[in-house]
């Protein structure tokens, strides 16, 4: 029945295919996209709010995280099969749904701030698969509605969703009733594991109160990317990533996800919202960036940020249409011509006015 539901939930192949032409090393080429039908249902849940994805090469499947805060269904992730080729994405089939479980082994209940103590479900945003250890890492942005406070977290889960542990995070990521720490809905948004499996990087969407104002149309900002040791569960470094100004007509900009190409180099999504998404991909490198793990406020320190170069402005590419709220990125399989595939996913916010789309790109080696 699940497979039948997945097939019935099929989608639309849109956006065309870009021909493979010679390009400079590192250039990103758009291949095509596939949209799920609005309101796609699987295993009694609405497939929506997709905020992150990570590729499992051994099983040739993707783990795709929903940011549903147990409002529509349980906090959860899906397993998805993508038929990926040099033409783009020929098909997307949802093959499984797994609730994320709390420390007691139960799905997270819906929010109840009036309870004593308040029930605060997670706000799932980042996801990374660990092939060597066969487990998942996932992040929650926490909650900040004083007096209700819940710190962001990075947790470890089994492929069955079971709670396996939690990373320690630096104090600057703790929520507070005062104007310190992360802003609401702007904390840990992106998560990626280095290719060697030693380190996990967790990126904030926008700066915390300690680190200055969020980006606006004319000004950028610095956000923190935390380096976590997978074996010890401890933070070992932290770096400042420079966000671009949002630019007109958008009002703000943020980091929505990143994928590690090495221990120090990444592809980063920056997305500015409203009235229509502005989505840009950047290559970013730690290089000579300052370790700010012990720095309480970036505005009060001399900081060398990470370096970055524009990889692809999705908004400016006429062949990438439609384009919605892109929030997740992962490296997929190698294509038949040897190029490295990159897969993106959008978060439709469970809105009938938005779409759930998977985009395929290729990196020229």
TrEMBL record:
Signal peptide: 1-22
Domain Phytase-like positions: 46-350
Keywords: Signal
Keyword Flavoprotein attributed: no
Superkingdom classification of source: Bacteria
Protein name: Phytase
């Amino acid at each position: 029945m699940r497979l039948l539901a997945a097939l019935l939930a099929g989608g639309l192949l849109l956006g065309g295919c870009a021909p493979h032409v010679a390009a400079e090393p590192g250039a990103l080429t758009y291949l095509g996209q596939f949209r799920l039908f609005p309101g796609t249902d699987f295993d009694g849940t609405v497939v929506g709010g997709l905020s992150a994805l990570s590729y499992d090469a051994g099983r040739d499947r993707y783990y795709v995280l929903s940011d549903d805060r147990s409002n529509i269904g349980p906090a959860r992730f899906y397993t998805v099969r993508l038929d990926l080729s040099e033409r783009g994405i020929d098909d997307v089939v949802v093959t499984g749904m797994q609730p994320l479980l709390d420390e007691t082994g139960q799905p997270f209940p819906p929010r109840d701030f009036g309870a004593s103590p308040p029930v605060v479900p997670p706000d799932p945003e980042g996801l990374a698969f660990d092939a060597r250890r066969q487990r998942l890492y996932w992040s929650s942005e926490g909650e900040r509605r004083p007096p209700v406070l819940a710190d962001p977290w990075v947790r470890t889960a089994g492929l069955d969703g079971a709670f396996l542990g939690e990373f320690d995070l630096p104090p600057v990521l703790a929520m507070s009733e005062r104007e310190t720490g992360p802003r609401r809905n702007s904390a840990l948004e992106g998560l990626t594991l280095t290719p060697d499996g030693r380190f996990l990087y967790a990126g904030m969407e926008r700066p915390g109160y300690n680190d200055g104002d969020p980006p606006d149309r004319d000004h950028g900002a610095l956000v923190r990317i935390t380096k976590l040791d997978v074996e010890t569960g401890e933070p070992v470094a932290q770096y400042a990533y420079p966000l671009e100004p949002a630019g007109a007509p958008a009002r703000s900009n943020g980091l929505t996800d990143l994928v590690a190409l090495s221990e120090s180099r990444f592809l980063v999504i920056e997305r500015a919202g409203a009235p229509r998404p502005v989505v840009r991909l950047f290559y970013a490198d730690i290089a000579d960036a300052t370790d700010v793990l012990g720095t309480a406020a970036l505005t009060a320190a001399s900081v060398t940020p990470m370096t970055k170069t524009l990889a692809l402005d999705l908004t400016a590419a006429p062949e990438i249409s439609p384009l919605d709220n892109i929030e997740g990125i992962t490296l997929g399989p190698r294509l038949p011509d040897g190029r490295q595939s990159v897969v993106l996913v959008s978060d439709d916010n469970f809105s009938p006015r938005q779409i759930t789309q998977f985009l395929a790109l290729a990196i020229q080696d």
